[in-house]
Amino acid sequence: MSDNGAPPRGHKFLVHKRGDHVGVATSNVETGEKVIGVYMDDDSWIEVEAKAAIPLGHKIAVEELGEKDDVIEYGIRIGFAPEGLKVGDYVHTHNLKSARW
User: C or N: which end of the chain has fewer Cβ atoms within 10 Å?
Assistant: First the structure.
């Protein structure tokens, strides 16, 4: 669910730009927790159910991606998802291959 109005109180992650595939946790997120994320470029919001625990500062998927699809953050390609991603996945080195090397 997302809305163009003001986000509900208590968001737990930020998405840098509309169109990004991941957001960054602003506090620890528990497995199964429904969390609100705010898009920083337009203040809209999204609600996602976490499929795994996500530590502060780590990424959560906000878009479903297919096998080997590019992963976008900050509006740029940061890597690819070898096995794809589901909304709410914990995104880290186990399922994201960096575009840097």
Answer: C
What own/partner pairs with CB < 8 Å and gap ≥ 24 does 45-51 have? Answer: 45/2, 45/3, 45/7, 45/8, 45/11, 46/1, 46/2, 46/15, 47/1, 47/2, 48/13, 48/23, 48/87, 48/88, 49/87, 49/88, 50/88, 50/90, 51/86, 51/88, 51/89, 51/90
* Global pTM value: 0.90
Read off the pLDDT of residues 49-91 as tens digits, 9 standing for 90 and up.
Answer: 999 999 999 999 999 999 999 999 999 999 999 999 999 999 9
Cβ of 95: how many Cβ atoms within 10 Å?
18
Pairing mode, strands 2-3 and 45-49: antiparallel
For the chain, domains (ranges, CATH) are 2-98 (2.30.130.110)
Helix (H) or strand (E) holding 90: strand 90-91
